[in-house]
Structure formats: structure tokens, C-alpha cells
């Protein structure tokens, strides 16, 4: 009897962890729906999806891979910013939009490559390596923009390009949402249905064992950090098209939220591992809280307090339910 119970206990724990996140989500949704009149309006929900969920989720998908590999990436905001800077600068210089897009994503890729060289080749800890890249990236932005001046492209000459990226739709679904769907499908297949994902998770669980199992750890880590940077670069392009400008250091706003969403997502896994589904749930939870608190009338600083309390509450509820069962 005890052996049978022990076999089922991990599944029970996983279900209780999932329940904790879902309870928090439903409970907060009901609070905001009753306290903020505009919360359930179609315009507000569309705005949250296109401008909040999509941008954060794409960055968080990359962070999910990094955390799965046992690392951390503090430079995803730099990847967002460098893609935005190069893309907008290229358009301002008269470069064709496709080449500008490629250049922006290439800039983000270089950020990921630098991380990979420091971490996978020089064996610097991910925290220190990406922190250093964060400082370098912020300095580069200031040097390139005369101390951190935004670059605005608000004339009609650029409207068609930006509208095609951020305001167009296909089958009634906004283009940024389609971009997110493609990113979700690609990353879900890569992490959960392919050998690449299994090797990344093996590196995160036991790097020494992964090495002796024949996994090319440096190569896989290189791919992980480049993937995370390119995904963040996609967000940088979408952000630029949405605000029609480049704003220095605006990518920093995604860093902590992306990490928070990824770790909230780990609560639905009995192994406490990141997952694409868990990360998306974490993103939806954070985006809903930010929007709900804004509509209720909380200022920015109290919103940050609310999000911090939320993260603690979800984790405490999850661990509490596990201990009781």
C-alpha cells in the first residue's frame, strides 16, 4: 500500500502545484473584473494580449531555455534594445525594411553569441557573464545615441512599415499574436519533443553527467544563449514597431518579468523544471496583474510591490499545498 501511494504522490504534488497557480489566476481575474469597469472590455483585453502578453512571452520563452540549461540571462533586455536600436537606425538611414529586420535580429544574435563565448567557452558563470554583457550593452546604447537619446520615426514615411509589423492582422488575428504562436510552437517542439530539448534539460539537471553521456555541452549552451537573444530581438522589433521609435534601455522592463514568469511556471512541474506551458501561464498572470492594478489606479511603484507579493503568494501556496498532501 505504501509503495503504491509513493508512486502516485509526485503526480498529486504536481496537480496541487498547478492548482495553486490556477487558483491565483482565477481569483485575481475575478477581483479585477469586479473592481475595474474597463477590465473585461474587448479593447482592454486586446491591448493586454498584443502589447503586454506577446512582448513579454517571447522574451520569457528564451529565458525558459536558459533556465532549463541551469543558467540565467541578465542581458535579455540588452538583446531587446540592440535589435530595436539597429532596426530603427537602419530604417532612419534608408535601408530597406527586410534588411533592417535582419540587421536588428543579427545585433541580438551577437549579444547571444558574446554570452555563449563567455559562458560555454571561457567557463565564466552565467550570472557574471550576462551581468557584464548587460553593463556593456547599456554603455553601447548611450554611446550610440549621444548619452541615451531616443530615436523617433513618427513621420508618414515609416508608418506603412510599422503598421505592417504591429497593426496588421491575418484572419482577424493581429500579426504580433501570430508571431507569438509561431514562437510558442517552435520552442515547445524544441524543448519538449526533440533531442535538443532533452539534452538542454539534462545539462541543467546534471551537467557533469551530461558531459560524460556524450552531450556536446558547449555547443548546446551556445545554441541556448543565441536562441534566447534572438527571441528577445524579435520582441525588440515588435516593440519598435509599436511605439515607432527606439527608447534606450527600454528592454530592462522585460528582464525581471521574464525571469519571474519562468519561475512561476516551474511550480506546475513536479520536478520544478521550466516548461513552455508553465512560462506562458506565468506571463499571463503577471500581465493580468499589471493591467488590473493599473486600471484600479495603483501607481507604478505599488504595481511592482503587488507583483512581488504575487510571486511570493503563488510560491507559498504551491509549497503549502504540497506539504499538506
Element layout with pairings:
Layout lengths: L1 H34 L6 H27 L7 H17 L4 H25 L4 H19 L6 E2 L6 H8 L2 E2 L2 E2 H18 L2 H11 L1 H6 L4 H27 L1 E2 L5 H14 L10 H21 L3 H25 L1
Antiparallel strand pairs: 1-4, 2-3
Helix pairs in contact: 1-12, 1-13, 2-7, 2-10, 2-11, 2-12, 3-4, 3-5, 3-10, 3-11, 4-5, 4-10, 6-10, 7-8, 8-10, 11-12, 12-13
User: Uncertain runs with pLDDT below 50, 5 residues or more?
Assistant: 1-11
Strand content: under 5%
Instruction: Indicate the mean pLDDT.
Output: 87
Radius of gyration: 20 Å
Structure description:
It is globular, with a radius of gyration of 20 Å. The chain is 78% helix and 2% strand. It is mainly α and 325 residues long. The chain is built from 13 helices and four strands. 41% of the residues are buried. A hairpin with a 2-residue loop joins strand 2 and strand 3 (173-174). The protein has helices at 2-35, 42-68, 76-92, 97-121, 126-144, 159-166, 175-192, 195-205, 207-212, 217-243, 252-265, 276-296, 300-324, and strands spanning 151-152, 169-170, 173-174, 245-246. A two-stranded antiparallel ribbon has the order 1-4. It has a two-stranded antiparallel ribbon with strand order 2-3.
Amino acid at each position: 500500500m505504501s509503495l503504491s501511494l509513493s508512486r502516485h504522490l509526485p503526480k498529486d504534488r504536481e496537480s496541487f502545484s498547478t492548482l495553486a497557480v490556477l487558483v491565483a489566476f482565477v481569483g485575481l481575474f475575478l477581483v479585477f473584473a469586479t473592481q475595474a469597469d474597463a477590465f473585461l472590455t474587448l479593447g482592454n483585453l486586446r491591448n493586454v494580449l498584443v502589447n503586454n502578453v506577446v512582448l513579454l512571452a517571447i522574451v520569457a520563452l528564451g529565458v525558459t531555455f536558459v533556465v532549463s540549461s541551469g543558467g540565467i540571462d541578465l542581458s535579455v533586455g540588452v538583446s531587446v534594445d540592440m535589435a530595436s536600436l539597429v532596426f530603427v537606425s537602419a530604417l532612419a538611414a534608408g535601408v530597406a525594411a527586410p534588411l533592417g529586420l535582419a540587421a536588428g535580429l543579427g545585433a541580438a544574435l551577437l549579444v547571444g553569441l558574446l554570452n555563449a563565448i563567455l559562458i560555454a567557452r571561457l567557463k565564466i558563470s552565467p550570472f557574471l557573464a550576462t551581468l557584464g554583457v548587460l553593463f556593456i550593452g547599456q554603455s553601447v546604447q548611450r554611446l550610440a545615441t549621444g548619452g541615451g537619446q531616443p530615436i523617433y520615426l513618427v513621420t508618414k514615411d515609416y508608418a506603412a512599415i510599422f503598421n505592417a509589423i504591429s497593426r496588421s492582422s491575418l484572419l482577424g488575428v493581429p500579426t504580433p499574436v501570430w508571431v507569438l504562436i509561431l514562437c510558442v510552437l517552435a520552442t515547445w517542439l524544441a524543448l519538449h519533443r526533440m533531442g535538443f530539448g532533452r539534452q538542454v534539460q539534462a545539462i541543467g539537471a546534471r551537467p557533469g553527467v551530461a558531459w560524460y553521456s556524450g552531450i556536446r555541452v558547449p555547443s548546446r549552451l551556445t545554441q541556448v544563449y543565441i536562441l534566447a537573444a534572438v527571441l528577445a530581438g524579435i520582441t525588440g522589433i515588435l516593440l519598435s514597431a509599436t511605439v515607432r521609435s527606439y527608447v534606450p534601455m527600454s528592454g530592462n522592463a522585460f528582464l525581471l518579468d521574464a525571469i519571474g514568469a519562468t519561475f512561476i511556471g516551474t511550480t506546475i512541474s513536479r520536478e520544478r523544471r521550466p516548461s513552455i506551458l508553465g512560462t506562458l501561464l506565468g506571463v499571463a498572470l503577471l500581465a493580468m496583474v499589471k493591467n488590473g492594478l493599473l486600471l484600479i489606479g495603483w501607481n507604478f511603484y505599488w504595481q511592482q510591490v503587488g507583483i512581488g507579493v504575487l510571486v511570493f503568494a503563488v510560491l507559498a501556496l504551491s509549497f503549502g499545498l504540497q506539504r499538506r498532501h
